[in-house]
């Protein structure tokens, strides 16, 4: 995928990513901090995966989706952070046009699957709490695989649509991106041609691809809350809410940061806040998810202890 030349200017062949800080003296500290965050994220999510694989109690639909979510979290941070670390080491801040669009595609692909998987997890909780008698048939292994496959297909369509749309824009002037990875808002700011259709596409597709899953999540948990409040036992209510609390926390963080990032396209100037939200989307979310899901879950904690100690369960 190559940039289009213009009659009145030279096509941009590469972009310059300014990164998080422009002061060279701070680059070593940023490198160490983000390398540590990357290793913690990958290690944490691999631990969750290992716990799910070795603990028979975790061979359930909820943890099947959680395992897929851990893979996505590792993918999201791998798409952005290693390339940033490489630029810090080489002191080279340029990114080829094709590499920038490739990063954009894979980032939106993985985030899109993340969005749909969170919806599948909400549906799983709805069936488990509100339809317990038919749960095993409605959430069979076939249904689980179909939900994951549909998530990937929808996210692929979304990512490809935005990547192709951005490739039709002309970039012939400024090529400096005040960020540490390539994304739609930053590229819109640099385009020589009108981005109105691209922004309408982002809002329109975003409403369908993110708004619909969010509505399904909210609807699922309204039914879950009504069912839980109908449980007479205090212990039963506590157990039901504890299985949903972690997922709701992740959903709130995911959609909160995403809405802030993509609903501010009308802003004439991208600020430090955008970098902070970018860190939250690409680093903080994937790093926090293993902590959130294991913090109040004794089964996951027990499996993690066995993984760390090297005692594999054979039961």
From TrEMBL:
Keywords linked to the UniProt accession: Cell membrane, G-protein coupled receptor, Membrane, Olfaction, Receptor, Sensory transduction, Transducer, Transmembrane, Transmembrane helix
Keyword Transmembrane: yes
InterPro entries: GPCR_Rhodpsn, GPCR_Rhodpsn_7TM, Olfact_rcpt
G-protein coupled receptors family 1 profile domain sequence ranges: 44-293
The keyword Nuclease is assigned to this record: no
Its membrane topology: Multi-pass membrane protein
Highest taxon of source: Eukaryota
Family per record: Belongs to the G-protein coupled receptor 1 family.
Listed name of the protein: Olfactory receptor
Organism: Bos indicus (Zebu)
